[in-house]
Specification:
The protein is an all-alpha fold. It has helices at residues 3-14, 18-25, 29-37, 44-54, 58-62, 79-88, 91-119. The protein has two domains: 3-62, 434 Repressor (Amino-terminal Domain); 79-119.
Length: 121
């Protein structure tokens, strides 16, 4: 598929009308229609706005394979699957997640300690 076909397919999958995308990226409906037909080129800024609207990266639009990535939820995964998902993050994001978990565990320990010792008073 080419870029014009990708944009049309994504817009349709998202349930959006041409006018809605046109308004969002700042072009009139006829200009947007030409984008989807491949007879008008797309400015980088327009592609970036489309990516925001579609909640995709520009790369996902350019290389669209017919599947919009679904939201990943970690709660319903097994512990092993959760760890595999965490390993997919880049190092900085992974460290941030671990810092958040450390903070939450430390807070829980303090709460448990406090509750145990207040109960003995």
């Amino acid at each position: 598929m080419d870029l014009a076909e990708n944009i049309k397919a994504i817009r349709e999958e998202k349930g959006l009308k041409q006018i809605e995308v046109a308004d969002y990226i700042g072009v009139d409906k006829s200009a947007y229609s030409k984008i989807e037909k491949g007879t008008r080129s797309l400015a980088i800024e327009e592609l970036q706005k489309m990516a925001q609207l579609f909640n995709l990266t520009t790369d996902q639009i350019l290389n669209y394979d017919g599947n919009i990535p679904k939201e990943v939820t970690i709660e319903d995964k097994t512990t092993i699957e959760q760890m595999r998902l965490l390993q997919q993050l880049d190092e900085e994001d992974r460290q941030t997640v671990f810092k958040i978990i450390d903070k939450m565990l430390t807070t829980k320990k303090f709460k448990d300690f406090f509750n145990k010792n207040v109960a003995t008073l």
